[in-house]
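Task card 7
Instruction: Convert sequence to structure tokens.
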Amino acid sequence: MESVNIKELNDRIQRESAFVDILTMEMGKVIVGQKHLVENLLIGLLANGHILLEGVPGLAKTLAINTLASCVDAKFSRIQFTPDLLPADVTGTLIYSQKSEQFQIRKGPVFANFVLADEINRSPAKVQSALLEAMQERQVTIGDETFPLPEPFLVMATQNPIEQEGTYPLPEAQVDRFMLKVVVSYPKKEEEKLIVRMNNTGEFPKAHAVMKPEDIVRAREVVRDVYMDEKIERYIVDIVYATRTPQDYGLDKLANLVSYGASPRASISLSMASKAYAFIKRRGYVIPEDVRAVCNEVLRHRIGLTYEAEAENVTTENIIAEIINAVEVP
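Output:
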């Protein structure tokens, strides 16, 4: 740890992260505003994590991942989740060929670099679980054969927070597989005016490919090299532990509001997302501000609330804010 030359590493990260500005600029041509969404898409992409998006319809969620796929020159597929969707519609299936008198494998839409699972909570758990193996092991089993998925592989799932009739909440095990949960908000007035103008004139800018998928795979290796001090590691573990045993951190009032805390996967995601955030900010080392910047997105879907919390209108964001204020910053 001590042998890390921070200056050399910093210079290297500055060089290697130059594409971030080009990528952001190219996406900015098509997507008006939504800087928070674009930044979190890049964090997920660089940290090799999947993203769950929550927002009302029409906030450019589909457009964002489609544009990212165009910028990276990668294969993009969109799966519309509906109550009658079957697992085979996602992963693929065996089809009997009369010509060859054998079963042939027909691969499903999950075999792409960027997969958009639109309104994932519209389909039953059986279909949602078809994505589990793909998200965790980066492979898909059809019949008795297992196929690796292309690299990079990113699942972006959306869910609509308004209309909850006829929806199936995601099971905790699956929600935990998402590195980030991003809440997408409405655009600002000026941004919306620009969106209206673009649609009225019918002049939609196109995003051009500025990278190759292999560039992203290489960038991920560089993100892993971003230096994280032991104090920052301890800080991350403290934040995650405070979601499990808040009383140990002087947060007795939270003990009755949290039914379960974040898993070790949260600690891993928090450290990887912090490294990716530092990389995006063209820095070769992680500072506490990086951890705090990604804390809400990493933890908001990993903390279970009790009935008392729901009765008092306490959200996971409130709990995360309390924890960040209470845990000692290195």
